[in-house]
C-alpha cells in the first residue's frame, strides 16, 4: 500500500494519496487546490489517480478536486448526502460502501455533524484484513477535538442539530473501530474548524478515546454544550469557499506568475477599488509602504488572514519581496481568491523614487502605550485576539474585536480617536492596524510584542513601584 499524508501548515490542512502499488489504482482525499505534488508522487510510484474523495464541502479552503479531475480523468466523490448539490458530476458514496484499489480497500462511513454530508474513510491495507490500518476522519474527529457544528447556522442548519448528529457519528461510526486504528484528520492546530486541535497530525482511536475532551463520558446534551460553546468567529471567506467547492470554477494554473505592474498601474487599480496587500514582514511594512495598503505577512497564515480582512471578489494587487509573487498568488488561490490583478514591480525602488505615496506605521512598545494613554487621556484600544485568548487576560479598557469580525464591526469604533490594536505577538495587530488605516482611521498604532509584552511591562512597573515605596 502507498499511503502519504500531505500537511499544508499555512492552512493546517491535511490531504492524502492512497494507492495499491500492484494494481496502480489510487485515490486522493481532500486535496489542496495546487495539485502538482500529488501528480508527481503518483507518477513516481506508478499510480493512476482514479478518484478524488472529498470528506465534505470544505469551508476553509478551495479544494483541488476539479484540477485533479481535469489532469487525470478521475471521478469526484462525496458522501451520498451531497448528491444533487454540485454543479459538476459526482459519484456519491453510500454508508459502508467499499472501494477496492487492487488489494487495498476503503470503506466509507457516513459521519454527519460538522456538515450534513460528512464522511470518513476507513483504510484496509489488504481486503481480507480483519482490522483496519487507519481512518481518514475529515473534519469529524480531530486530534484533541471534533469538528465544529456551527458553521452552517447562517444557512438554516442549527448547531444543536448538527452537534447531535456529530455525537452519533463519533459513538456509532468511529469509536466502534479498534483502538489501534490510526486517526488521520483533515486539520491540525491553528485551523478555525475546531477550538482545541493538537499539533500532532496522526493519533489512534484508543488515544483519542482516552484524551479527547469531546469523547469523555458525558450525556448527549452535555456533548452538545461542550462542542458548541467557545468557538471562535469563522473567517469571513468561509461561506465563499464552501459555496465555491460546490461550483464549477476556472482551473488554477500554479505555474503562472502574477502580472508585473509599475507604480502608476498599482495606484490606478487602487483608485478603482483594488486592495493592495503588502506581504512583507510587519517591521519592513512599518518602515515604509504604499499608503492605504494592508499588511498580511507571507510568513504567517497569509491566505486565511487575507480572507478575514478583504471581501471575496475584491481585486488584489500584491507587494512582495522579489521572487515571492507566485507563492502569494497561489496561496490566495487556495482559498478561492483568484482576483489577483498583479504585483508591484521592484517595490523598494518604487517607494524610494516616489516618497509622496509612501507612509510609515506607528508601532508602540508597551511602555510607550502607557505613556500615550496618560498623555492623550482617551486611547481606543482594540484586542483582535479570539475570545478564548482573552480569557487569560486583557488590557484594561480594551474592546475585544476578533480579527475575523473587524470589517463587520467598524461601525462600533471611532475613526477620529487615537487607536491601538494588539494581539498575542504582533502579526495580527499589524494586519488590523493597516486595515483600519485603509478604512479611513487616521491615527492607528499596533502594540509590539502583543499582550505578553504588556504583561511584562505591567510586572516591571509593579516591581519598580514596590522598590520605590517607603520602608516600614
Write the topology of this structure.
Elements (H helix, E strand, L loop, with lengths): L1 E7 L4 E7 L5 E5 L6 H10 L2 E6 L11 H8 L2 E3 L20 E4 L2 E7 L8 E6 L9 E5 L20 H16 L7 E4 L17 E2 H7 L8 H9 L9 H7 L15 E2 L1 H9 L3 E4 L3 H6 L1 E2 L3 E2 L6 H8 L6 E4 L5 H9 L6 E5 L2 H7 L4 E2 L2 E3 L1 H11 L3 E4 L3 H4 L8 E2 L18 E4 L4 H12 L5 E4 L2 H19 L4
Parallel strand pairs: 3-4, 4-5, 9-10, 12-17, 13-15, 13-16, 16-17, 19-23, 20-21, 20-22, 22-23
Antiparallel strand pairs: 1-2, 2-3, 6-7, 7-8, 8-9, 10-11, 14-18
Helix pairs in contact: 3-5, 9-10
Task: Provide an overview of this structure.
The protein is built from 15 helices and 23 strands. Helix 1 links the parallel strand 3 and strand 4. With 472 residues, it is α/β, with parallel strands linked by helices. The longest helix has 19 residues. The termini are far apart. It has 3 domains: 243 residues, Ribonuclease Z/Hydroxyacylglutathione hydrolase-like (Metallo-beta-lactamase, Chain A, 4-Layer Sandwich); 100 residues, 3-Layer(aba) Sandwich (Oxidized Rhodanese, domain 1), CATH 3.40.250.10; 99 residues, 3-Layer(aba) Sandwich (Oxidized Rhodanese, domain 1). The model has no long low-confidence stretch (mean pLDDT 94). It has a 6-stranded mixed β-sheet.
Amino acid at each position: 500500500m502507498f499511503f502519504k499524508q500531505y500537511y499544508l501548515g499555512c492552512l493546517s490542512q491535511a490531504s492524502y494519496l492512497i494507492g495499491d502499488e500492484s494494481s496502480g489504482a489510487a485515490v486522493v482525499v481532500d486535496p489542496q487546490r495546487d495539485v502538482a505534488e500529488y501528480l508527481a508522487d503518483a507518477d513516481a510510484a506508478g499510480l493512476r489517480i482514479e478518484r478524488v474523495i472529498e470528506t465534505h464541502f470544505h469551508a476553509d479552503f478551495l479544494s483541488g478536486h476539479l484540477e485533479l479531475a481535469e489532469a487525470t480523468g478521475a471521478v469526484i466523490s462525496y458522501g451520498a448526502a451531497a448528491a444533487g448539490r454540485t454543479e459538476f458530476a459526482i459519484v456519491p458514496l453510500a454508508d459502508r460502501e467499499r472501494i477496492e484499489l487492487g488489494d487495498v480497500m476503503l470503506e466509507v462511513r457516513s459521519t454527519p455533524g460538522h456538515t450534513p454530508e460528512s464522511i470518513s474513510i476507513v483504510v484496509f491495507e489488504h481486503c481480507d484484513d480483519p482490522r483496519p490500518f487507519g481512518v481518514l476522519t475529515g473534519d469529524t474527529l480531530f486530534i484533541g477535538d471534533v469538528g465544529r457544528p456551527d458553521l452552517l447556522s447562517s444557512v438554516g442548519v442549527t448547531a444543536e442539530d448538527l452537534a447531535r448528529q456529530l455525537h452519533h457519528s463519533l459513538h456509532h461510526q468511529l469509536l466502534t473501530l479498534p483502538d489501534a486504528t490510526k486517526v488521520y484528520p483533515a486539520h491540525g492546530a491553528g485551523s478555525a474548524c475546531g477550538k482545541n486541535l493538537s499539533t500532532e497530525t496522526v493519533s489512534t482511536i484508543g488515544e483519542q478515546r482516552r484524551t479527547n475532551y469531546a469523547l469523555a463520558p458525558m450525556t448527549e446534551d452535555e456533548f452538545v454544550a461542550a462542542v458548541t460553546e467557545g468557538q471562535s468567529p469563522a473567517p469571513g471567506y468561509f461561506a465563499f469557499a464552501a459555496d465555491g467547492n460546490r461550483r464549477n470554477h476556472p482551473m488554477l494554473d500554479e505555474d503562472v506568475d502574477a502580472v508585473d505592474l509599475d507604480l502608476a498601474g498599482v495606484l490606478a487599480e487602487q483608485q478603482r477599488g483594488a486592495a493592495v496587500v503588502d506581504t512583507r514582514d510587519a517591521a519592513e511594512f512599518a518602515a515604509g509602504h504604499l499608503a492605504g495598503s494592508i499588511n498580511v505577512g507571507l510568513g504567517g497564515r497569509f491566505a486565511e488572514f487575507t480572507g478575514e480582512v478583504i471581501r471575496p471578489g475584491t481585486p488584489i494587487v500584491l507587494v512582495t519581496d522579489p521572487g515571492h509573487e507566485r507563492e502569494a498568488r497561489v496561496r490566495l488561490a487556495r482559498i478561492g481568491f483568484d482576483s489577483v490583478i498583479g504585483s508591484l514591480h521592484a517595490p523598494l525602488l518604487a517607494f524610494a523614487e516616489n516618497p509622496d505615496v509612501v507612509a510609515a506605521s506607528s508601532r508602540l512598545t508597551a511602555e510607550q502605550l502607557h505613556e500615550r494613554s496618560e498623555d492623550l487621556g482617551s486611547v481606543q484600544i482594540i484586542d483582535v485576539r479570539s475570545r478564548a485568548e482573552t480569557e487569560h487576560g486583557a488590557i484594561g479598557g480594551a474592546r475585544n474585536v476578533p480579527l475575523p469580525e473587524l470589517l463587520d464591526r467598524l461601525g462600533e469604533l471611532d475613526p477620529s480617536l487615537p487607536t491601538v490594536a494588539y494581539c498575542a505577538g504582533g502579526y495580527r495587530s499589524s494586519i488590523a492596524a493597516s486595515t483600519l488605516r485603509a478604512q479611513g482611521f487616521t491615527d492607528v498604532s499596533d502594540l509590539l510584542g502583543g499582550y505578553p509584552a504588556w504583561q511584562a511591562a505591567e510586572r516591571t512597573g509593579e516591581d519598580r513601584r514596590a522598590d520605590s515605596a517607603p520602608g516600614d
